[in-house]
Amino acid sequence: MKNVKLIEVPSEIGAGTRGASLGVEAIKIAALDFMSNFFIHFPSEKIQTENRLLHEPIESPYAKRIKGMHTMYERVSKSVADTIKNNFFPVVLSGDHATSGATIAGIRIAKPKSKLGVIWIDAHADLHTPYTTPSGNMHGMPMAISLGIDNKESAIHKPDAITIEYWNKLKQLGKICPKVLPENVVFISLRDYEKEEKNLLDRLGIKKISAKEIRSKGAENVVRSIFRYLADCTDIYLSFDVDCLDAAISKGTGTPVGNGLREREAEDLVSKFMQNRKICCFEITEVNPTLDKENLMAEIAFNILQRSVNILMMN
After folding, report:
1. Tell me, what's the pLDDT at 152?
2. Disulfide-capable partner of 8 in 46, 90, 270, 305 (CB 3.0 to 4.6 Å)?
3. CA–CA dist 162, 185 (Å, integer)
4. Where residue 256 falls among pLDDT bands split at 50, 70, 90?
5. Burial class (CB in 10 A: 0-12, 13-18, 19+), 17
């Protein structure tokens, strides 16, 4: 049985649409609506945010609010690292996906000799950099940060010196760069990316598994094949962005995309991943109740969260 600690990161400075900072509270409301006392069972920590920056002018157009993001990375990575060092299993509930790079940094700070694998369940690759971003929104960049990548080969921008300085600080956080290697990353339900990311995916040969493949092979077989693929990894981080779900059910998120996972498919997939003892951290992200109807997205997220943690408690 694992000792679980909840880490709440209600940050949305990496997103382009407002409201993701309310996602954690929306999940708690879903728990209340289901008459669940889940949130009183576990110790929790709420990370201070830099959301005030949303009201201030943007300094770095190709990595918006990057100074604030660096502050968030320091806070989140410390919390995750301390949680692991104290023999707790971190379950991270975040607003936007940008800070997941800090979660990965925290794991590596706590386990500097770890060979870390990443299972990234997301409609998007989040492999943009200040050199390639179409929007400047940093929730499209955490995997590039974790892989220590600039992707200058596909550059369409020339970021200023301050942006480059802070970008390098994010990559070098914990004095470990890269935090993870491309051959130890698996994307699931990935289906929306720009050509700059496509070039990178092809060049690095990162493994991708579609919702269609999960449907045809079955969750059990897919999970087994992924753990075989990541067999050399000592620890595995599981990141679940709710936009991995099909747009028909994922309206309560900033970037919904068609042809995604169904609710039950996602729940089964995550619960099967969580049975593996190499999973060292689980994150749910990008619930945005301001875009939703009747808090449906948060309810789905809570069901996945509760089932996953129950499996952890039994393992």
Report:
1. 97
2. 46
3. 29
4. confident
5. middle
- The closest alpha carbon to 291, from 19, 8, 16, belongs to 19
Fill in the amino acid letter for 119. I
The tens digit of pLDDT for each residue in 54-99 reads 999 999 999 999 999 999 999 999 999 999 999 999 999 999 999 9
Whether 1 shows a pLDDT value over 80: the answer reads no
Instruction: Report d(CA 48, CA 288) in Å as an integer.
Output: 19
**CATH code of the domain containing 209:** 3.40.800.10
Domain total of the chain: 1
Indicate yes or no: pTM above 0.85: yes
How far apart, in Å, are the Cα atoms of 46 and each of 25, 95, 170, 244, 305? 11, 12, 21, 25, 17
**Cα–Cα distance between 261 and 253 in angstroms, integer?**
14
* Cα(310)–Cα(102) distance, integer angstroms: 25
Indicate the range of 56-70, 209-223, 247-261 predicted with least confidence. 247-261
Is residue 25 within 8 A of residue 300, CB to CB? The reply is no
CA distance 282 to 25: 18
Per DSSP, 3 falls in state P
Contact by Cβ (8 Å): 132, 48: no
Q: Which residues pair with 283 in a beta bridge?
A: 92, 239
Amino acid in position 298: A
DSSP 257: B
Predicted local confidence at residue 271, as pLDDT: 97
Which tokens sit at 313? Answer: 């408690």
Residues of the domain holding 141: 4-314
CA distances for 177 relative to 146, 171, 238, angstroms: 8, 6, 20
How many C-alpha atoms does 78 have within 13 Å on its Cβ side? 10
